[in-house]
Amino acid sequence: MAGKMNAWFILGLILIGTVAASNATGVVVADHDRRVLFKDNFNRYPEGSDGSPVWVSTGGVWRVEDNEFSQSAMNYIYYSVAGDPSWTDYSVEVKVRIVDYPKPVSDVTPPDTGLVFRWSAEGDSWYTVQLCVDGRLRLYRKDKGSTYPTPLFASEVCFKWKKGEEYELKVRAVGGRITVYLDSDAVIRFVDTAPLLSGKIGFFCGYMHSHYDDVVVRAIRMEKSESKDMDDD
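and the corresponding structure tokens:
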């Protein structure tokens, strides 16, 4: 009898831990990694789902295709965000794949896609990391009251772009220190002297059809002993 009671007690602790690992987004994360704030591989949504209520979009055609999140409207720039606006220092990573885009490529509005981070509660300010089909990777910031995001990095980073290829994109933001990784390589390091300090994460897609998968957000809790290495979670 005592053995059965102990077994039920342990099961109860496991269930409590799982619930405790749930966050405001409704996504249950693995409690063995307490740094994980959010993760989504889009396998739990039915085909064609728009990801709601976890994911909230500004328009476009966001839906689950073959267990990946996608946006296929190619007439404007659209966003889909998730998470908690109170998140501060964190890393966010995702796998991105460009499926299609209009031809010929416009010089005024070249197709691009990428990550959104520190999206404000009001949805009026955020950062983006943009992968463009012309082979450029750029860091942008959108401020409250401005119409469009503005570039934060003077020198654009070039990358070898190929249609249909999957890219691993990651951002690490600690205070005003922002590091951008492409396929595990740190390609942009930037210090924003007046940074946006908290916000949700998400994706943006402009004038193209793109897919997103395996998004993970991890909290970064810096200790004094860790401050020397800003590139470790």
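(Above: one complete record from the training split.) The chain has two domains: 1-32, 35-222.
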